[in-house]
Design brief:
Strand 9, helix 10 (275-283) and strand 10 (287-290) form a beta-alpha-beta unit. The mean pLDDT is 89. This protein has 13 helices and eleven strands. It is α/β, with parallel strands linked by helices and 367 residues long. The two termini are 23 Å apart. The protein folds into two domains: 31-155 and 343-357, Glycogen Phosphorylase B (Rossmann fold); 175-326, Rossmann fold, CATH 3.40.50.2000. Strands 8-6-5-9-10-11 form a six-stranded parallel sheet, with helices on both faces. The chain has helices spanning 15-21, 44-47, 49-62, 78-86, 111-125, 136-146, 191-203, 221-227, 244-253, 275-283, 295-302, 314-326, 341-357, and strands at residues 28-29, 68-72, 91-95, 130-133, 175-180, 211-216, 219-220, 236-240, 256-260, 287-290, 306-309. Helix 7 (191-203) packs across helix 12. The protein is globular.
């Protein structure tokens, strides 16, 4: 049941930016809005929450829920869960990004906002009957600070997804390193990666004859400026945002798939394990993770699906690129079925069933 969202409507003067991030426009996207630095915990508190909360309360009056699951980001979505929990509805809070730990937003400019955000997180999440998180670092942080158990339910892939028959062509005589999705996100810049490309070419002036880097996804203004450097012509190219089947096809045809989990970071990003990582695992192609201390690196190593290296040092990045050209990476050796959506949904289902069973006021429906 959809509700109004002012950020998705005509009142949003940055609507074109949103559509670019969604892949609906082939333009560059800009940095986060300055308004995001003002509203705690996020802009959805004023743009979406009033409409969604009213709808949720109306629905509950018509037919009480057995359980409510709230998913963030945005973190303000959990306020709906807290409101329904106060009325007796069992509540599971699902964090697909950290709230105050490694959050997907700019750092707060004032100490007061930091304090208020932390107090709000603690007050809201401690009311939840159950909390689950998307990565181990996020779960461990919540367990330490909130003193509650937090199971991990990762991102995953859909085994029913089928790649298109055709994708943007890759050069058969060169090693193809493919990155899909956004490269520039809050707190993480691709600058170090591009500096690594320059260092690679400095070491190997003919390196573009051995390696091609293909980027598929929305392009930020920063990334566009980096791509415009004439020295990288022939080595790196952007194919813009693709339809999902084409993106999957590109992943399946790549020699190596790239995850940027670290760069010229404003803050460390240990919890990074983006959705595309699991699409990469499903594609069965080797993965290079730039960010050796990240959750993405741990998952790739554990799955025997590739290697990781520092993502903030151009020299290390250049060495990783040379290794790809000279040696390549082995094809993943282990099954990754644990990251398929059916397996993950069964784990979430078990959490919900345990939550409902533990609440004596819950009205259990017959199957």
């Amino acid at each position: 049941m959809r509700t109004r969202d002012l950020l998705a409507g005509l009142l949003n003067w940055r609507r074109a930016n949103l559509e670019t991030l969604q892949g609906r426009r082939q333009e560059t996207y800009a940095e986060a809005s300055l308004l995001e630095r003002l509203v705690v915990p996020d802009l959805s508190l004023v743009g979406w929450l009033p409409f969604a909360l009213q709808r949720a309360l109306t629905l509950r009056r018509g037919e009480p829920f057995d359980c409510v699951v709230t998913t963030s980001p945005p973190a303000s979505a959990h306020l709906i869960g807290a409101a329904l929990r106060s009325l007796g509805t069992p509540w599971l809070a699902d964090l697909r990004d950290g709230w105050t730990f490694d959050p997907p937003r700019p750092a707060w400019p004032t100490r007061l906002q930091v304090v208020v955000d932390g107090m709000l997180e603690r007050a809201v999440l401690r009311r939840a009957d159950r909390v689950v998180a998307v990565t181990r670092p996020i779960a461990s942080d919540l367990e330490r600070r909130l003193d509650v158990p937090v199971p991990v339910i990762t991102n995953g892939f859909d085994p029913d997804d089928r790649p298109a028959e055709e994708a943007p062509p890759l050069a058969p005589a060169r090693h193809s390193l493919v990155h899909t999705g956004r490269m520039t996100v809050v707190g993480r810049s691709p600058l170090a990666f591009f500096q690594g490309l320059h260092e690679y070419l400095r070491r190997r002036p003919d390196g573009a004859q051995q390696l091609e880097v293909v980027l598929a996804g929305p392009v930020s203004a920063e990334q566009q400026a980096l791509l415009a450097d004439k020295r990288l012509e022939g080595l790196v190219r952007s194919v813009g945002s693709l339809e999902r089947p084409q993106t999957l096809a590109l992943q399946h045809h790549a020699d190596t798939l790239l995850v940027l989990a670290e760069g010229n970071d404003v803050r460390p990003s240990r919890s990074v394990a983006t959705g595309k990582l699991f699409e990469y695992l499903a594609a069965g192609r080797p993965v290079l993770v730039l960010g050796e201390g990240s959750e993405a690196a741990r998952i790739v190593r554990e799955a025997g699906a590739g290697v990781a290296a520092r993502g903030d040092h151009p020299g290390v990045i250049a060495s990783a690129l040379e290794r790809l050209v000279d040696q390549g990476l082995e094809t993943p050796r282990k099954a990754v079925d644990q990251y398929a959506w059916p397996a993950l949904i069964r784990r979430l289902e078990a959490e919900i069933e345990a939550l409902v069973a533990a609440n004596p006021r819950t009205r259990v429906r017959a199957p």
